[in-house]
Design brief:
By secondary structure, the protein is an alpha/beta fold. It contains 19 helices and 17 strands. The strands form four sheets. It has a six-stranded mixed β-sheet with strand order 7-8-6-9-5-10. A five-stranded mixed β-sheet has the order 2-1-3-11-4, with helices on both faces. The chain has a four-stranded antiparallel β-sheet with strand order 15-16-14-17. A hairpin with a 5-residue loop joins strand 12 and strand 13. It starts with a helix and ends in a 15-residue tail after the last strand. The N terminus is likely disordered.
């Protein structure tokens, strides 16, 4: 399936807003085992109204664990559950009369990632020998898949047994895995998105491998329902599956432009956030591009052409630091919009930023990468005049210290107020810069050349 990270967040926020127009729609409550980009087709089907078009109104809840999904199904609190297929098998083997039926499959490979406390170059599964890993609920598909790949690698696995090659701990609940690992439990941990990305961004753990690299194709997550609901609502379940299939087709076949447009529609038109379109387009297209946003709503995308040597050196000269905290991009941008209304001179700042964009494109296409730092600095000075939340005294102190120790310029990534500082630092001055700025964790990154990509094929 395609990796549509920006669509995921937008779809999740809008879930409760979808399907409220027609009281005649058949209402279905769906419990998912976790909230993850791995389930993007489901969220796309919700955001684009595919379920509504089939006559269904979906209420989606996050149960945080297959055991809770199963309990909700058996109690009748929900009609459909998204989880691994194993609860269905366990219930049937125990001869329950109200057992579950798996009626549709969403994913067919593992969606978890192995994290460690330290960076390990050229990681292999053998690096887990003599260690413990938090694997999740005993008998769950993620835990069983982890055991499978470890055994395939020639390791003897023990469940909560440190006498074997690898101790796979099953004593920590799924929802508590991250917190327990950060509190010192286990040497490694198996985690899903979006927690995985959050840990990386916070520099609190190191991504070592994707379990799917070793697992191959397996039945991983499926939609299940009680045998009673299945027998009485086969037409409803068929409509649900059709809508889901359309979501899968969109995720598999949508162009970069379609993905960007959908993300913008959800965040700007549906959610009413006063934001631009640049983040959605950059995430969809990838690479280094010049974006022109036209008054009629269309967007012109043009690649910025540089020599390979200049491109690689630009990547080396950029350093990203994590400053922590949280911010509301919409609130900061609302203040910027208010400032634009109440002070017309703010428009001059916006015009200067546009001019800097043209200048940056010209300099990059002439391989003058040092101009990037100078332009970032000019942009930073202008941006701070647009809203008070963009910077603060501590940020200003960090910025001034960075410039005094080799940086030419920089910016806060996003609307401002928190997150990450990006600095342009010539390679020969980076040692001094890193020493001066060592209180801020450095985040390693590489330029993305692809944008949304097919990471698994369903």
């Amino acid at each position: 399936m395609k990796k549509i990270l920006m669509l995921l967040g937008l779809c999740l926020v809008s879930i409760t807003m979808i399907g409220c127009k027609d009281s005649k729609l058949t209402k279905i409550k769906v419990a998912e085992v976790a909230r993850s980009v791995f389930y993007a087709p489901q969220y796309v089907a919700l955001s684009k109204g595919y379920f509504e078009e089939e006559g269904l109104k979906i209420d989606l809840v996050n149960a945080n664990g297959a055991d809770k999904v199963t309990a909700a199904l058996l109690s009748g609190d929900v009609q459909i559950g998204l989880q691994g297929p194993e609860p269905t098998i366990y219930l049937y083997k125990n001869n329950r009369t109200n057992y579950l039926i798996n009626f549709a499959q969403l994913t067919r490979t593992d969606g978890s990632f192995i994290f460690g406390r330290e960076k390990i170059e050229n990681f292999t599964l053998d690096d887990l020998r003599g260690k413990s890993i938090l694997g999740g609920r005993k008998g769950g598909v993620p835990e069983m898949t982890l055991e499978y790949v470890l055994k395939q690698a020639g390791l003897e696995v023990g469940q909560d047994d440190d006498t074997k090659d690898v101790n796979v701990r099953t004593d920590v609940a799924f929802a508590a895995l991250t917190g327990s690992f950060l509190d010192g439990e286990g040497d490694f941990v198996s985690l899903f998105e979006p927690t995985a990305t959050a840990l990386i961004n916070q520099n609190r753990a190191y991504l070592l491998a994707a379990t799917a690299e070793y697992a191959g194709e397996i039945t991983y997550t499926a939609y299940s329902t009680s045998i009673k609901y299945f027998n009485n609502n086969k037409e409803v379940l068929e409509k649900f599956t059709k809508a889901l299939y359309r979501g899968q087709q969109f995720v598999q076949n949508a162009t970069d432009e379609e993905i960007a447009q959908e993300a913008c529609h959800m965040e700007i038109d549906v959610l009413g956030n006063p934001i631009g379109k640049q983040d959605q387009y950059a995430a969809a297209y990838g690479g280094l591009n010049y974006y022109q946003f036209n008054k009629d709503g269309s967007v012109f995308v043009e690649p910025v052409l540089m020599s390979k040597d200049a491109y690689n050196q630009l990547e080396k000269n950029l350093i990203m630091l994590y400053v922590g905290g949280e911010h509301s991009a919409s609130s900061i941008l609302k203040e910027q919009s208010k400032n634009m209304v109440n002070a017309k001179d703010k428009e001059e700042g916006q015009k200067k930023i546009v001019e800097l964009t043209h200048k940056l494109k010209y300099e990059l296409e002439h391989d003058n990468i040092d101009a990037v730092g100078e332009i970032l600095h000019e942009n930073w000075l202008i941006k701070k005049t647009l809203a008070s939340g963009i910077s603060n005294p501590k940020f200003d102190e960090w910025y001034d210290r960075a410039l005094a120790n080799g940086a030419v310029g920089g910016k806060i990534l996003g609307a401002g107020g928190s997150g990450f500082f990006l600095f342009y630092v010539p390679e020969e001055k980076q040692a001094k810069f890193r020493e001066a700025m060592k209180e801020l964790p450095e985040m390693e990154f590489k330029f993305d050349h692809q944008g949304t990509t097919v990471v698994f094929v369903n």
